[in-house]
Amino acid sequence: MPRRTPRTALDRLRTPRRTPKFLKAASICVLIAGLLSPTAAATAQAATGTAEAAASNDYCGGQCSDILPPGENGNATLAQILLNQAFGTQPAHAEDQLGPYANLATGYSTLTDAKINNFFNDASFGVPSDQVASTEKPAGRGDVTIVRDKKTGVPHITGTTRYGTEFGAGYAAAEDRLWLMDVFRHVGRGQLTSFAGGAAANQGLEQEFWRNAPYTEADLQAQIDNAVAAAGDRGKQALADVNAYLAGVNAYIDASDSGRYFPGEYVLTGHKDSITNAGTIEHFKVTDLVALASVIGALFGSGGGGEVNNAISLLAAQSKYGVEEGTRVWESFRERNDPEAVLTVHNGESFPYATKPSSPQGEALPEAGSVTQEPLVHDRTGSAATSSAASASKTAATTALTSAKRGMSNALVVSGKYTASGHPIAVFGPQTGYFAPQLLMLQEIQGPGISARGASFAGLSMYVELGRGQDYSWSATTSGQDIIDTYAVELCQDDYHYLYHGTCTAMDKVEQKNSWSPTTADSTPAGSYTMRVWRTEYGPVEYRATVGGKKVAYTTLRSSYLHEADSIIGFQMLNDPDYVKGPKDFQSAVQHINYTFNWFYADSQHTAYYNSGDNPVRASGVDAEFPVWAQAAYEWRNWDPATNTADYTPPSQHPNSVDQDYYISWNNKQAKDYTAAPWGEGSVHRGNLLEDRVRKLVAAGGVTRSSLAKAMADAALADLRAEDVLPKLLKVVGSSTVTDSTAAAAVSKLQAWVTAGAKRTETSAGSKTYANADAIRILDAWWPLLVKAEFQPGLGSDLYTAFGDNLPIDESPSAAHGPTGSHAGSSFQYGWWSYVDKDIRAVLGEPVQGPLAQKYCGGGSLSACRDTLISTLKQAAGMTASQVYPGDDQCSAGDQWCADSIVQRTLGGIKHGRISWQNRPTFQQVVEYTSHR
Question: Could you give the count of Cα atoms lying within 13 Å of 898 in the half-sphere of its Cβ?
Answer without folding.
Answer: 18
